[in-house]
Amino acid sequence: MGVEIRVEGLTKSFGRQVIWQDVSLTVPAGEISVLLGPSGTGKSVFLKSLVGLLKPDRGHIWIGDRDLPRLSESKLYETRKLFGVLFQDGALFGSMNLFDNVAFPLREHTRKRESEIKRIVLDKMEMVGLLGAEHKLPGEISGGMRKRAGLARALVLDPEILLVDEPDSGLDPVRTAFLNQVFLDLNAQIGATFLIVTHDINTARTLPDNIGLLYQRHLAMFGPREMLLSSEEPVVRQFLNASKVGPIGMSEEKDESELEAEARSGQDPGRLPPIPPQQMPSDGLIRAGMHAPGAWCAAHGVTPPPGSFVDEQGRDWVEEWPRYVASMTEAAGMAGSVPSRPGRTDPSRRRYDAGAES
After folding, report:
1. pTM for the whole structure
2. 271-287 pLDDT tens trace
3. Backbone angles phi, psi at 24, to 5 degrees
C-alpha cells in the first residue's frame, strides 16, 4: 500500500529567485493526485524536492514518520527506495535494451539472483504491456513505449510512492489516454501513492482523486478533484478553459495594467466546463481512492457546472453511482466473495452515500 506525503511550509529558491514558498499539502496514501500549473512554476522542482534530490530552504516533507530534509545521507538513501520516478522522457540508457534498463535498479540496489531479476523484470514489463519487447533498444521503439519502459523500471523495487513528471510530454492525445489507463490500473493493482505533474487538462479532469495548482510562487489550491473543478478562482477558470483572459500571462502572471484592461473590456475566461465522470480501471472495480460523483459538491453546498458527471452515453453518474455500487456488491455476493486486490475495498462498505465525504 502507499505512503502518505505531508508537506509543511516548504520554500525553495535558487539564489534570489523564489520558486515557491510556504507550500503545504497532504497527498493521501494510496490515491492518485495531480499537480497542475503554468510552465515555470516549479512543478518538476517540487518533485525533485519530494525525493530528496533538491533540498528546500525551509519546511518539512514527511514521508510516513520521516522528515526528508532532516535525514542523514544513509537514511535518505533508504527512504528513496520507497519511491519510483518516471521522468519526462523516460530517461532510458540508450545503449541498453529494455530488459537491462528495467533491471538496472535491481542490479544496483539489491543482491538478487539473475533468475529472480528476470522474473521481476518480465512481470513489470507485462504490467505495462511491453512483454515481448524486452530485447529492443530505446531508439527502436515509440515515445509511448519508452514511457512505459521507464514506468516498468520505476516499478521494479515495488515502490510505495510513484512520482510522474509530465507523462504526456511528447505524446499524442491517444497515447496519453492509454498511459493514463495504465496509471489507473497500476494504482488499483498495487495501491501505491501517485503524484503526477502534468499540463494536460483532460488528464487532470478525468484521472486523479485529488488536484493541486501551483501559481505565483505558491500553492493556489489542493484537494479533492471536484473542489478544483468547481472552483470559481480566476486562475483555475483560466487554466481549465485554456483561455488567454485571466491572471496567467506569457511570462507567468500578468501585471495590474493588463488585468485592469481586461476588466474594463468585459473579457471573461469563460464558464467552468462540466465535471466529467472519473475514469475507471479496466476491470471496472472501484479503486480505494475514488469518490462518489458529486459527493464533495453536495457536502460543501457547491453547485457544479451544468452537465457535470454526465458521460458520452448520457448517463448521469450522480444518479447512476448507487446502482453501480449495488450491482457490484450483488455480483460479488453471487460469486461468493468480494473480488480483492491491493488498494480496493468491499463496495458495500465504501463511503459513497451523497454527502458522506469531506
Report:
1. 0.85
2. 788 999 999 998 888 88
3. -135, 130
- Quick check: 99 and 121 in contact, CB under 8 A? yes
For residue 164, which phi and psi values (nearest 5 degrees)?
-130, 120
Return all residues near 351 (Cβ < 8 A) that are at least 6 apart.
292, 357
What 168-172 contacts at long range (C-beta under 8 Å, 24+ apart), as own/partner pairs, is 168/198, 168/199, 168/200, 168/203, 169/88, 169/89, 170/88, 170/89, 170/143, 171/143, 171/144, 171/147
**Contact criterion met (CB below 8 Å) for 32 and 192:** no
Assigned C-alpha cell, 39? 510552465
Q: For residues 350 and 165, what is the distance between their CA atoms, to the nearest angstrom? A: 31
Nearest to 32 by CA among 182, 165, 178, 207: 207
Query: Which cell numbers in the block locate residue 9?
Result: 511550509
Give exposure, 72-92, as e/b (b: 16+ Cβ within 10 Å). Answer: eeeebeebbebbbbbbbebeb
- Can you read off the three cell numbers belonging to residue 244? 488567454
Closest CA to 7 of 61, 82, 71, 79: 61
Q: Cell 462540466 appears where?
A: 274
Residue 203's H or E segment, with its range, is helix 201-206
State which residues of the chain have pLDDT below 70: 245-246, 248-270, 332-358
CA-closest candidate to residue 61, choices 40, 74, 39, 45? 45
> How many residues in the chain?
358
204 burial type by CB count under 10 A (0-12 exposed, 13-18 middle, 19+ buried): buried
Q: Which class is domain 5-225?
A: alpha beta
Indicate the burial class of 144 (C-beta count within 10 angstroms; 0-12, 13-18, 19 or more): buried
Q: Boundaries of CATH 3.40.50.300 in the chain?
A: 5-225
Tens of pLDDT, residues 226-242: 999 999 888 788 888 77
